[in-house]
Structures are given as C-alpha cells and as structure tokens.
C-alpha cells in the first residue's frame, strides 16, 4: 500500500488496483479552432498543463499501471448527440460543423484526437464518450471492474465540467478518487479553484487532491 499526503487527508492506495483516467486532452479543447474556442473560451490556458499531464502519464507507464484516455466526441451522424447538447447556447459553430480541425467534436476528425504530446501508447485504453461524464454510455465501468480497479487518479480538462462530472460518477460507483490538481485546468481559473474546493470539502465528499509530484513519488 502507498500513502500520499493528499488534501483533505491522506490517500492510501494499492497501485495494483489503481488506474489513471486522463480526461479529454483533445485538440478540440486545447487548440484554437476547436470546440472550446467555438464556445467563446480562451484555449491558451489549457495547453500549459500538457507537460504536467505528460509527467503523470509517464509515472503510470513506468509503474505498468492501467491508463485510460477519454475523448469527448460524437458519431459522424450525430445519433449520440442529443439536440439539447448541440443546440445549447450561441456557439460560433455547433458540434458537427466543419472547423479548421475537421468537424467539431466528431470521432475520427483531427480535432477530436488527443494532442500529439500525450498520444496513447499501445495497450492503453482510449475511450470515446458522448457525455461529460466518462461512465455514461461507455464500457468504462466494465473495463475497470474486469481489471479489479478500486482507486482512480484523474487528470485532464476541464476541471469543473468533464473531470468533475466523471469523478462524481466514479465516486457514486464506489471508487476512491484523487484529482491531480496541477494536471487539470479550466478556461475559468476561479472555476478550477472552486471545483477543487468542492471535491475535497466535507471530508473528501467527492475525493482527494494532490500534486503530480506527490503521485509520481508514491508510484516510484
Ligand atoms: N466546455 C467545457 O468546459 N468542457 C467541455 O465541454 N468538455 C470537457 O470538459 N471535456
């Protein structure tokens, strides 16, 4: 067993039953011209964490542990994109429209790909998800159960949307969840701070947080 001096208190885990979930480190959220930008966001904030996410992935690779990369995207015919999602708000382009990185948030298009610096290696799991949470309409629960995973470490974007939603889904399914706080980012710094505060408040009501250095040191 390993213990990290996490917030709000120690996080103890068996690496053999721990997986890394990297949420949506896709060009559509991190590069100009993608889904994040169509919503009116400044995407430059998100690219800053790419090297830190990379260090966390390398720590899990070196330890030979399960790594799951998720991608938020939809089928080309949009049959898995509810109109409520596609028509919400006033984006400059909608899901499925042609953008500078191909059709916005569509599986197989360049924008839906994970940024090249964090590309999955053979043997790692790549999971396409139509929702904000990674358990909804995906085989993630079955994949983790088959591998006897009980503890999850989270990274990725954005903290308060897909990362927090997935952590909450995982928490309700009985997983012990830790967010790598410097390997996640939001378009809104105040939302990232609030999400981290919410996760670890009330005695880790959603889970724990710690730095990549703390997680990597525990895995060595
Ligand atoms: N808009 C926003 O902050 N996030 C998303 O739409 N998806 C993810 O968080 N991946």
UniProtKB/TrEMBL annotation:
This is Cysteine hydrolase. GO terms for molecular function: hydrolase activity. Keywords: Hydrolase. InterPro entries: Isochorismatase-like_dom, Isochorismatase-like_hydrls. It comes from the Bacteria. It holds the Pfam family Isochorismatase. The keyword Cytoplasm does not apply. The keyword Transmembrane does not apply. Residues 18-207 form the Isochorismatase-like domain. Transmembrane segments: none annotated. It comes from Reyranella humidisoli.
């Amino acid at each position: 067993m390993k213990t990290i001096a996490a917030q709000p208190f120690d996080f103890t885990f068996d690496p053999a039953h721990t997986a890394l979930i990297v949420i949506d480190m896709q060009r559509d959220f991190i590069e100009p011209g993608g889904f994040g930008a169509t919503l009116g966001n400044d995407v430059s904030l998100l690219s800053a964490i790419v090297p830190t996410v990379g260090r966390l992935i390398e720590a899990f690779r070196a330890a030979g542990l399960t790594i799951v990369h998720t991608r938020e995207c939809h089928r080309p015919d949009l049959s898995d994109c509810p109109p409520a999602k596609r028509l919400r708000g006033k984006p400059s382009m909608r899901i499925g429209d042609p953008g500078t990185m191909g059709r916005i948030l569509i599986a197989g298009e360049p924008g839906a790909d994970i940024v090249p610096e964090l590309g999955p290696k053979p043997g790692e799991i790549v999971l396409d998800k139509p929702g904000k949470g990674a358990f909804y309409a995906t085989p993630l629960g079955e994949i983790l159960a088959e591998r006897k995973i009980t503890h999850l470490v989270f990274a990725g974007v954005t903290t308060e949307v897909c990362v927090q939603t997935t952590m909450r889904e995982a928490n309700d399914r009985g997983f012990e969840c830790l967010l790598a706080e410097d390997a996640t980012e939001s378009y809104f710094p105040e939302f990232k701070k609030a999400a981290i505060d919410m996760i670890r408040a009330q005695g880790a009501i959603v889970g724990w947080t710690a730095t990549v250095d703390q997680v990597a040191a525990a895995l060595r």
